[in-house]
Amino acid sequence: MWSRMGLYRWLHNELVPEARKSGISVTNWIIISLVLASFLFLALETEPTLLAIPEWKMVFDWFNVAVVIIFAVEYVLRVAIAGLRPEYAGFVGRLRYITRFYSIADLLAFLPELIVMVVGGGIPLIALRVFRLFRLIKIARFVPAFDVLGAAMKRAGTQLLTTLAMALALVYVAAVLLYFIEGVGQGREEFGSIPRAIWWSIATLTTVGYGDIYPVTTLGRIAASVIAIAGIGVVALPAGVFASAFSDELRERQLQKLQDRVEAAEAQAGAAPEESSA
């Protein structure tokens, strides 16, 4: 029979990716499979022809109930074993754990649907399907690339906010210009207000260009051309900033891994003479 602490350590090794030196545990592979299956079922549940078949509807309902229960149990177990790590030990440590980004995502992945299943309340389950998108974050904890992505965003946070502010300012200035040129000057309903002109400004500056709204005056087309050219740089600037931060983060992690290997090799080489002399 396993002791309670032995069971907790086994669960910790199964559920916490950092507890394993390499690879993904069987339990976490099951969780990943359930997440992917839930997205497949989410897509199939929107097909009216399948919902019209009682057998398929029953399969959808039972699958969703099973997934919600499994994810609820998983969440409780993760909170229970979190105390094995010193930073999450005790009541305050548990509170620190459940307020983590991944823990909140785990909770939102099942709690809204679970509440409706238990107490009802007249809220259709279909309205809560959007919360299933949080299940994608459950997979993110097993993919190192997502950690690199998050670290890169933190590294370039100030620069990204600066470029975002520049983009928003340009969107507003472009909308105001076209409002006065096309809306006030020509009385065009499409540019009849600044909020309406903002839709055109966003579509133009992001180089989408739907073509549903466009200037017809010469001055308006000149202004739109200048704005469109400026939009190319504004859209490309955040991408360049983020790509640079992502590359720097990858390089630092690779150097850290190399340094760890060198230190481990030096430690092993230093321990060998001591063993031979003994």
How would you portray this structure in words?
Helix content is 75%, strand content 0%. It has 278 residues and is mainly α. It has 2 domains: 4-142, Up-down Bundle (Four Helix Bundle (Hemerythrin (Met), subunit A)), CATH 1.20.120; 157-272, Helix Hairpins (Orthogonal Bundle). Helix 2 runs antiparallel to helix 4 (54-81). The chain is flat, with a radius of gyration of 27 Å. The model has no long low-confidence stretch (mean pLDDT 81).
The chain-level mean pLDDT equals: 81
Total helical segments: 12
Poorly predicted ranges (pLDDT <50, ≥5 residues)?
none
Count of folded domains: 2
Name the beta content range: under 5%
Q: What is the top-level CATH class of the largest domain?
A: Mainly Alpha
Q: Say what the CATH topology of the largest domain is.
A: Four Helix Bundle (Hemerythrin (Met), subunit A)
Radius of gyration: 27 Å
Q: What string gives the helices and strands in order?
A: HHHHHHHHHHHH
| SS content category | mainly alpha
Net shape: flat
- For the secondary structure, the number of strands is 0
Residues in helix, %: over 70%
List keywords for this structure.
278 residues; mainly alpha; Four Helix Bundle (Hemerythrin (Met), subunit A); Helix Hairpins; 2 domains; 75% helix; 0% strand; flat
